[in-house]
Fold each of these.
Amino acid sequence: MANRNLKEILFNKRMLACVVLGFSSGLPLYLLFQLLPAWLRSEGIDLKTIAVFALIQLPYTWKFIWAPLMDRYNLIAPMGRRRSWMLLTQISLFITICAYGFFNPQLNITSIAVVSTLVALFSASQDIVIDAFRREILSDEELGLGNSIHVNAYRVSGLVPGALALILSDHLPWSSVFWIVALFMIPGMLMTIFAKEPHRAEAPKSLKASVIEPFTEFINRAGIKHALLVLLFILLYKLGDSMATALATPFYIDMGFSNTDIGTIVKGSGLVMQILGGFIGGIWMVKVGINRGLWVFGMVQLVTILGFAWLAHAGPFETIGTIERGMLAVVIGGEALGVGLGTVAYVAYMARETNPAYTATQLALFTSLSAVPRSIFNALTGGMVEALGWEMFFYVCTFLAIPGMLLLFKVAPWNSKTKLVDA
């Protein structure tokens, strides 16, 4: 970045692609773990059923299995490997999101589960190819900034299902809400159609090579012990934070807040602090590196979980006034700042552990592991809340954040100096 003007790096078509595709990547995920629980809870579905819906997100944890297919094959020759897979997954997401509008949770819960599983499958597949596309269009010099922009755009997309849709649900039928949300997939489709196909990485020569080589390279690079520690760290670093926010929207509802409160206060405050955290995180890593970022930001993530326990201790509220809304804004703002900080360092760490020759499949493996808490452990949260209560549940989540921090001694020592990505 020192060799080029920051303005020149920031304002170009590649960064615009990071913005639009980051938004397209985040939208279906936020729909699944923010809008879907709110819809089901509002329609009288119990917490255990809502929590079990976390299992529909399993495709995010297994996407490395079919990532080699997306690396190897080109579906539409004129468009190229990356753009053809992106367009297919985006069209599929548009159709399945619209499909929610035809079902009633009280009568069609099984059908909703099937549609949700398809949304997760197409969303995870879109993530695979967008990650590869982003890695290939960005130069090594642009990679850090491009990933930061992608993460922030990803977060901004949460405004649609997590804020706009919730506000609209107080005024429109849920069917109309889901159809409006689906329309926000169109910008990503247009970007895919008009973008240029990258040619930085050649397709693997065979399906066998696309399956085997990314994994053998990762294991052989620093030994199997280090490889296992890296994978365990990726699994555990955000476990506590992920479980704490798994039922966030039902938690706010149970505390007495309306959908409009959640849409305006929670999502507005959270978004600003997440974006702020992303930019602070980017600046911090430029100055002191990824390792120290993981330490500092991980501690922020851990401490801010306790804010939820504080809010649970004070609630539920019989009436919602300025004080209660202020408490909510402080808690969510603090937690969102921690998430924004931690995610930038977390994504940068995964990129650093990736060999550019096998980016798509290795990143799919890493991001699949990072999704395990969200798709498997989070399914336990409904039963935990009913057994422990909200306050004790958040104390348990704080404790679960500790093991990932301890692994930093092995995978990212404080005084170790490492580059963002090895070219």
Note: Residues 419-423 have pLDDT under 50 and may be disordered.
Amino acid sequence: MVDGILGFVMVLAIVIVSTKLCGLLFRRLHLPQVLGYIIAGVLIGPALFGMGGFSLIGFQSEADSVSCLVMLDEFTLNDGSTYTILDVFSKIGVILIMFCAGLETDLEELKKTGLISMFVAIAGVSVPLVLGLCVSLPFMGSGLVDGSFTTVVQGLFVGTILTATSVAITVSVLKELGKINTRIGTILVSAAIIDDVIGMVVLSVMTGLGTAGGGAQLSGFDWFKAQWWGTLIMIVAFFAVAIVVGIGLHYLFKWMDKKWPSTHRLALFGLATCFVYAFVAEEVFGVADITGAYFAGVIISTVNRVATYADKKADVSSYMIFGPVFFASIGMTMSFDGLSGWLVLFSALFVLAGLVGKIAGCGAVIKLSGGTWREAGIAGVGMMARGEVALIVTTKGIEAGIIPESFMIMTVMLILVSSILTPIFLKLLFADHREPHDDEPSKYRGHEIEVRPPESGDGAQSDQPHSSEVNENGHS
């Protein structure tokens, strides 16, 4: 058995190879590579084969019950929590993923699509959020799913997981069918971007409320942040400070781009901005660190050339090491010990709420705006797929102690089911679908979108899962 520093180097080798192989397999099955990464973590960690007494990678706490090739040492913090070096790499991975997602946010595109995309995104967040709470209510306090699942805030967090949208599969199908630049295609892509922004705000609020109220032994500023009203004040303060500082950073990066165009220092300063925003967001304001990282990316995205260059450089680190480690760690730390019939039932209702919520919410907006039933169905199904942002939100809830670890199984089921059904339904709905000619008035009141000739595309995906695939998968 190997452990220590060289043992972790061996862990990285196993993770990189296994995630790549499983990712390629899932891509051939026309499923998101991130699902392959998670399955790789299940296979190499103690989650599945550990029940038989053996795994490739094990944790120090399981040394007596599991025989493994490489053992990860665990360290204890002052607050009593434990972590491994894998957790550090995983944290960097999730921060980089959200930073790159922010870098690829096109604010100009949001302006072009008008109010209709905003309303589609709002409905795509609010309806699943409410349905998630409704599904959770019968199980609260029953002890059937998990004894700690008792509060309304936890139910709202379950709904928060459902708010994320992954546009990866949708974009692939739209490109394959030559519909990416049509009116409905533009609305879908723009709504998914806005959905991400709203989802990050909702996550910050839910995380803050879920950890608030525990300040009985605290004093001063820490006590203030622990109260629910203090949490809300700090969330508003974060966004106010982030915007003001972001305006200054916009001009700073613009000046740097003129003085040192396409140099490594731009990517380095951008990465440093990401880490500072992530740290300040969580440690100072109590907002989720991934919200800070995403916001940093959005700020830099306003300087196009810097954003493109920084994204290219940050994407290499995320794609090569940190991203695969994050997704594999989800599979490695997943546990099937608490799996029960009630949890399976809850998971099925959770998945159903996630699918119906997007179809009903987003589709209703398109229909009420003057679209056809077919276009309403396209909008709902196009926003239905989930990806890594749903995983990130779930992980955040588990880390904050808001929801139990067993709920990760529900999110994985949601991603798998929605990833399979979305391309099937989209292709059926787009069959014989025709866009209005240029001289026909738009069906959407008060919203004009240029209808350009469809681009040809085979929907091929790149080997890199972020700029072309992870970001799309994750525009959960």
Note: Residues 437-476 have pLDDT under 50 and may be disordered.
Amino acid sequence: MRQKHLTTHSHEKDPDTPYLTGSQSRAAEVCRAAQKWKNKVLTVFCFPRESDLIQKEFFSELDGMSLLKIDDGVLFGDEAKEYLRLRAAENEARAGKRLTGQIEEGESYSKADLRTIFESWYDGYLKRNVYPQYQKSGAKFMRKAERGPQGAGVEKLRELIGLSEAKKLVENILDFAKVQQLYSFDGARKKQTLHMTFSGNPGTAKTTVARIVARVLKENGVLRNGSLIEVGRADLVGKYVGWTAVQVRQAFDRASGSVLFIDEAYSLIDSSQTFGDEAINTIVQEMENRREDVVVIFAGYPEKMEQFLRKNPGLRSRIGFHVHFPDYSVAELYEILEFTAKAEGMLLSEEVHEKVLPIMEKASREKEFGNGRYVRNLIEHARMRQAGRLLAMDAVVTETDAVTLVSDDFEELRLSESDKLDGRIGFL
């Protein structure tokens, strides 16, 4: 089927710009390429509004192609004013003469023109009518649609299985960060403390959520880079006198504009090895000095994290948010199983549910149970058993056979076996 191609009108460039000065070879070359790839590439030509001659040159070269013309259209008088009133109503604002009075009788306005008029008016409206007390403070203003956390990272957070309390608290943290950005009194932005602890057993998605938090803080303008820099004791504690403070500062340098994720943070001080206290003291100092540029997240087992914070009151006072990651329920574990299988392009037969639930329920009662990590390893073992089953089949293996896991592929895992496989897919 032949692709339809689009032509659009834009008012953003000077219509008199000599796009085709000299010979017409450039226009012809572009059009030949569009003709050549018309069945594989959708081509969009964007023309200034008043560019009839230019359009004629192009269309003559595009003869025989199926073209769809899209025109932004223009509005006059009352229609333009009504468009502005509707835009104001969408933003819960009342449009008066200060807005509609900018429309001149007899003049034509594209929707792009009207959007520019509205944006300029709305910024002033917020200062005059919504936040008058901050009119002289240099405060930033956000529209209703921008006030909550925005971006793909937030959607990924909401799509995670389970963790309802953790997700809610994380969204509150992100809301707090955005509100802090609104205020800039006398040109000095108010300092914010977004350092956090993530406490939970292995496999409860602490690392995954930390990575998403870094992304969302970047997407919402709180952090410049939004990377997740993961470190442990070996990265922070030096072998010799004077090395530890240097290594800690280097870790903060790498995390500039991002999130520094310190896993099993209590390992810094719960052993007989030296220099752990020096690492903690330097971390506390850097957390304070770089509080606007680096967000630190400490992660680990719940009980040990609490002991860790009790040992260093200065550290606790600099952490504003504490997020708990509970173990997954059996139903949530099966959802993770389905999600992981789908992500790998695999199907689960109907009887898998009945076979796997008792396995998960028994494993979840074990002290060293790995939550999402256990589920991942369960699938890894199932795929290995599936491979053996398929090779032993006398019949021809179909494509459906190759991507389907059946109940016989699943078996109870000893936790020692589960620990041998790496936990992936973000359930760390």
Note: Residues 1-23, 133-139, 184-188, 418-428 have pLDDT under 50 and may be disordered.
